[in-house]
Amino acid sequence: MTKKVVIIGGGIIGLTSAYFLSRNGANVTLLEKDSFGEACSRGNQGWVCPALHAPMPEPGLVGSSMLGMMKKDDPLYLKPTAIPRLTPWLMQFIKHCNENDFQNAEAALHYLSRSTFQLYDFMKEDGVDFEMHNEGMLFAFFNEEVLNQKMKGFERKAEAYGHEAPVRLSGRELRDMEPNLSDKVFGGIWLKQQRHVNPQSLSKALIDKLAEMNVEMRPNEEVIGFDINDEKITAVQTSNELINADTILVTAGAWSSLLTKKLNYSLPMEAGKGYSITISNPNLSFTRPLYLGDSKAGITPFTGKVRIGGTMELSGINLKLDRGRIDSLRESILKYLKEPLTGDHEEEWTGMRPMTPDGLPVLGQIPDLENSYIATGHGMVGVAMAPATGKIISDIILSGEAKSKVGHFNPKRFVKKPSKSQTYKMFFT
Ligand SMILES: Cc1cc2nc3c(=O)[nH]c(=O)nc-3n(C[C@H](O)[C@H](O)[C@H](O)COP(=O)(O)OP(=O)(O)OC[C@H]3O[C@@H](n4cnc5c(N)ncnc54)[C@H](O)[C@@H]3O)c2cc1C
What we know:
single chain; about 425 residues; alpha/beta; D-Amino Acid Oxidase, Chain A, domain 2; 21 strands; about 30% helix
């Protein structure tokens, strides 16, 4: 019998999940509280660069960056007034800033990303018609030491996970490739095989494809509750109606924990706020995405546009465009360029990355509910990981096959086991 899967959240993870589930024979309904692909999946940089994937909690981050993170112009910003609410999440995050957890999480991310390029090609060949560029990506540095460290990191990853070897470039070689870079840039790195997509064109192409595949697409349909019987969800309550479901999949990005709370599953999820500015008909052109190594910001060329973006702010879910943060982003880019970047029109944007404290996505069955699943928590790499996530969650839901392969991403890892003293107390009271 055909399974009816109701997906909640129409960002890039919901869209690719709907695509693979529908392709594999499920009857899919996709619910979105606003418009499809318009939240975090809209104004991001679109880098599809598995060679870059790394968990955010890393050894040394706490000591070196935590104090800097309180400064408003730091690329990583922790809003002081948000700290009391953020503390439980931050405590878990800090716990994962050690070598062992970092290495395990990095290996898991690379395992999940290994089919990224093939799956992007597969979608293209299947008629999902989006803007994709295959010219690789560049890194630019003012500081030789930072360049050397990054180079070593890529060499290690190339050896450990089979990624391409990085190519070191002098300042002159870098400027031959990107003439708009300032003479002050010392040197760079080229990763030839990495790619980038235009995220809006990707969402649009998937929306068109899903309509063609008869997926029921329902925008402006906010999920506000669930009907649960015998540890099974039987229906999803939206702001408009009750929708029956055999299976549900939560792909609500940074909002996912608000939904899982209603399912008795406490997911530690914070929004990692980022900004971008998209410039139409720019005066300067670039051939590849550029990561500006000392500023931790990026420049990405699309057809007829250039996007600058970056920053990671922990201040809760809020779409306020902070003028100070946007100005810092502009300045951090400007110093790498020969002249100011301008154009016909500028769109300022902010998006909420779904962040878990261990830096890993959450993929699989929601604990204690046999027909409910979740796919979220992709942080800084949701676009790159979207096809692999859609494919794997579809395999888990429809055949249970991939279950054993996603151990690191299992939602159960956040279920607190009662400690011995708690068990004792529960027994005697
Ligand atoms: C500045 C910036 C740059 C980035 N650059 C890159 C990059 O280069 N490469 C990369 O791979 N990633 C990048 N990312 C990260 C990437 O954008 C995210 O990981 C990804 O978009 C997350 O997708 P999602 O579908 O999980 O979430 P979202 O796109 O946020 O989608 C979640 C959807 O769920 C909906 N929803 C929530 N609650 C409900 C409800 N109750 N009922 C119905 N619908 C609901 C929301 O409205 C939303 O549309 C970047 C992010 C930022 C901010």
